Amino acid sequence: MSQPSEFHWLLAVVQSIDVGVVVLDRDYCIEVWNTFMENRSGVLPEAARRQSFFTLFPELDEEWFRRKVESVMTLGTPSFTIWEQRPYLLRFKNYQPITGLEDFMYQNTTLLPLRGTSGAIEQVCLIIYDVTDVAVNRRQLQAANRELQRLSSTDRLTGLYNRGHWEEILRQDYARHRRHESQSALVMFDIDHFKSINDTYGHQAGDAVIQQVAELIRETMRDCDVAGRYGGEEFVVLLRDTDKQGAFTFAERLRRVVEAHEVQHDGRPIRFTISLGIADLSQPSTGHAQLIEWADSALYASKSAGRNCVTLHGHAARDQ
The GGDEF domain covers which part of the protein (predicted)? Predict the structure, then answer.
């Protein structure tokens, strides 16, 4: 096969393959611009040739791209980018019907050094791969996994952590306490006379009360705190880096917020209170389960003292 016909054959392949092919000289001027690039950019080959790559794509990070190309030309080795690190090199619109929810085309790219007849590297070839399908599928899978993780760790009614998840967080926090002597406190509380609410207003009203209590917790606690549903009408809040006095301040504030709150259900106002127990790590303990036992015992003391009050483990209930 003669050299001209071989060149023609190679050019036909470059034009027809479903990847972007751009050849740049050392001044970053375009020498080859294949059909893929024409279709995605809307720029005809005759308009692209001899144009500066940066003039054609002013949004490109020129400093970064020059470093990549200079490295390829100096070392004589290829360089790559993947969509996970840089979603795209050139922002092309995504026209694929299956993945049409994405505005742009995700891209992997390769930069190849091209040697002339003298053996010197005179040009670089940029190859752009459309990996939108792969990227979208991966992102959808990751989103699905995150949602499964969320569902497995949260209580469906309240959106707070379920018992298995918050207890594991408490276990980890207790291990941190053992290593670094950090302080934490656990607040446990339940809704007073909750059965009476269900009996009087119905179970849907009871669910509404539980949901609004969860919302009041979120509004009252800090971002670093951890709230969960213990079960039924019982809740817990892990207060990190908090001593018993700080925990009491939080618990009392939450008690007052709930006492002042009114749930409207089917046009009927529902008022209720909560009883709270607090345990902290200022006393020697054998494990995170003991902290739960102490908080539960303090909660029981609040119930015995007449409800709608806060009790610190090892102290008498604080009357309101």
Answer: 182-315
Q: For residues 17, 100, 144 and 223, what is the CA-based torsion angle, rounded to 10 degrees? A: 120
Question: In this predicted structure, what is the pLDDT of residue 320?
Answer: 43
pLDDT tens digits along 24-35: 999 999 999 999
Query: What's residue 221's pLDDT?
Result: 96
Question: Quick one: pLDDT at residue 245?
Answer: 93
pLDDT of amino acid 8: 54
233 is catalytic: yes
- Domain tally, the chain: 2
Judge whether 143 and 149 are in contact, CB under 8 Å: no
Annotated catalytic residue: which of 233, 252, 259, 293? Answer: 233
Q: What is the pLDDT of residues 95-137, one digit of tens each?
A: 765 545 678 899 999 999 998 888 899 999 999 999 998 988 8
* Residues 232, 237, 241: CA angle, nearest 5 degrees: 165
Q: Are residues 66 and 108 in the same domain?
A: yes
Long-range contact list for 56-59, CB < 8 A, 24+ apart?
56/30, 57/90, 59/91
User: What value does the mean pLDDT of the chain take?
Assistant: 89
Does 167 lie in the same domain as 91?
A: no
Cα–Cα distance for residue pair 106/57, rounded to 1 Å: 17
Q: Tell me, yes or no, whether 195 and 98 share the same domain.
A: no
The pTM assigned to this predicted structure is 0.60
The CA distance from 196 to 212, in Å, is 17
Residue length of the chain: 320
317 occurs within a structural domain: no
Q: Does 170 share its domain with 291?
A: yes
- For the beta carbon of residue 77, count every other beta carbon within 10 angstroms: 11
Q: 29: buried, middle or exposed (CB in 10 Å: 19+, 13-18, 0-12)?
A: middle
Domain match, 13 and 117 both: yes
